[in-house]
Amino acid sequence: MKGPRHLTIVIKLGTTSIVDEKTHEPLLSILSLIVETAVKLHKDGHKVVIVSSGAIGVGLRRMDMEKRPKHLPRSQALAAIGQCRLISLWDSLFHHLQQPVAQILLTRNDIADRTQYLNAQNTFAELLNMGVIPIVNENDTLAVSEIKFGDNDTLSAITAAMVQADYLFLMTDVDCLYDKNPRTNPDAQAVEVVEDIDALAADVSSAGSPLGTGGMSTKIVAARLATSAGVTTVITRSSNPGNIAKIVQYTQSTKVSTPPGASLALPQGEVHLSSSISSLDLNEVISHPPLHTRFIPDPHPIRDRYFWLLHGLAPHGTIYIDEGAFDALANKAGLLPVGVVAVDGAFAQQEAVRLVVVRRATPPESAHPPFAGPEVGRALVNYSAAEISRIRGLRSADIQGVLGYADSDYVALRENISFFKRDRSRPPSTDMGKEREKTREVELDAGAS
User: Fold this and answer.
1) For a FRET experiment, which of 154, 279, 294, 313 has its CA 20 to 30 Å from that of 222?
2) 125-175 confidence digits (pLDDT tens)
3) Cα Rg of the chain, angstroms
4) For position 263, what pLDDT does the model report?
5) What is the predicted pLDDT for the residue at 150?
6) What is the pLDDT of residue 71?
């Protein structure tokens, strides 16, 4: 008989949850509660990852500066100053509870290469297996706009997908999402559960603090990324970290009551967490959980290589394809030049591009189709933008005559294409080499029958 299933939980903290917005002093009370909560979860057998902002905020305090500079090198210097003090603070707090931690600093460049992405994934896995709590931050000392994740909300979602987390907690200064701004509308109603982000009607006017880079809108983006990877995503207030365990217990208990096979339900009494934190009594039945917004994960998650193609790579251009090509891709074929309508941007071979379907016929001389639909996916291309512009609309047999060479019959192989839409992208089983996830991949795999 199987015992309780242990969970992987990612906790993301913004700058204003770590340092005071005005004085830049570390908020030791909140940090200490986060540490206690993380350690209790870990002692109960769960794996915990913390995504921590705050390097620049801590750097401002160290250098006695009042506000975040606009000059990029100055901000990067402050990040270098603050990051060592920030990780020292985390290490000191966890050391009191005899809990080892590790620092992981990432930029988008670090995961743009597939081998490096897998190396990062393997490092996370090894640290978690060793009982270590990884503390992740963007490497702001090196990152510029071209290689930044944009904000730590996005970084936390990509991290959650990388470790195949069960939960991502986006800790913020409000309890949850509201349908209106609660600061100006007393009748604002809490949005407790979101099943379809596209249909979400919520106020996202919060633009983040002067110290941070995020806001409520970036949390919606992060929730979209994480739920597409099968991660239950929660927005809740950072000042009461003990709510994390209560929300997990409540959510898991609701899964237990669903019919078998309807969800990843745990055995009865699954998240039996210790109750030594004074604000928690987790042995009681949680019938009314703390206020939060919970985003339901996609039942057919995008994982591993397919998530990496969509979200680990920054697109360098756009390829417009016709509907026939899109249908062929949905039926496991690669992208042939005959299906390419137009090309936009300057990209090289083996760089990522957006795929956009053109819904109506476009004159061959048109570089920018006027009837393009939404972006449907991403691809790693076998030819550069200039080369694809020359061979678009042609048969593969004509590539040699036009270019003088033919590296491939395909503009992009099917295994290097990933779609956002799950109903178009349900793959059969296939051997992906050393890829760990082999069960519920979302994209069609080229050549699989």
Assistant:
1) 279
2) 999 999 999 999 988 777 655 445 667 899 999 999 999 999 999 998 888
3) 23
4) 37
5) 64
6) 84
User: 374-385 as b/e, with b when 16 or more CB fall inside 10 Å?
Assistant: eebbbbbbbbbb
The phi, psi pair for 304, rounded to 5°, reads 50, -125
Q: What are phi and psi of 191, to 5 degrees?
A: -100, 105
Residues in the chain where the model's pLDDT stays below 70: 1-4, 143-150, 201-215, 256-287, 360-372, 421-449
- Residue 227 bridge partners (DSSP): none
How many CB atoms neighbour CB 253 within 10 A? Answer: 19
SS (H, E, C) the chain: CCCCCCCEEEEEECHHHCECCCCCCECHHHHHHHHHHHHHHHHCCCEEEEEECCHHHHHHHHCCCCCCCCCHHHHHHHHHHHHHHHHHHHHHHHHCCCCCEEEEEECHHHHHCHHHHHHHHHHHHHHHHCCCEEEEEECCCCCCHHHCCCCHHHHHHHHHHHCCCCEEEEEECCCCEECCCCCCCCCCCEECEECCHHHCCCCCCCCCCCCCCCCHHHHHHHHHHHHHCCCEEEEEECCCCCHHHHHHHHHHHHHHCCCCCCCCCCCCCCCCCCCCCCCCCCCCCCCCCCCCEEECCCCCCCCCHHHHHHHHCCCCEEEEEEHHHHHHHHCCCCECHHHEEEEEECCCCCCEEEEEEECCCCCCCCCCCCCEEEEEEEEECCCCHHHHHHHCCCCHHHHHHHHCCCCCCCCECHHHEEECCHHHCCCCCCCCCCCCCCCCCCCCCCCCC
Question: Nearest 5°: CA angle at 220, between 163 and 414?
Answer: 55
Give the pLDDT confidence score for residue 328 in this predicted structure.
93
The CA distance from 323 to 16, in Å, is 47
Q: What gap in Å lies between CA 169 and CA 18, rounded to an integer?
A: 15
User: What pLDDT does 202 receive?
Assistant: 63
Which residues partner with 335 through β-bridges? Answer: 412
Closest listed residue to residue 51, CA positions, set 129, 125, 142, 157: 157
Within 8 A by CB and 6+ apart from 266, the residues are: 4, 5, 252, 255, 256
Cα–Cα distance, 110 to 49 (Å, whole number):
18
Scored b (16 or more CB within 10 A) or e, 71-85 reads eeeebbbbbbbbbeb
Phi–psi pair at 26, nearest 5 degrees = -60, 140
Rounded to an integer, what is the distance from CA 302 to the centroid of its chain? 11
For 187, list phi and psi in degrees, rounded to 5: -90, 10
Structure tokens at 377: 């996916």
With contact defined as beta carbons under 8 Å apart, do 17 and 238 qualify? yes
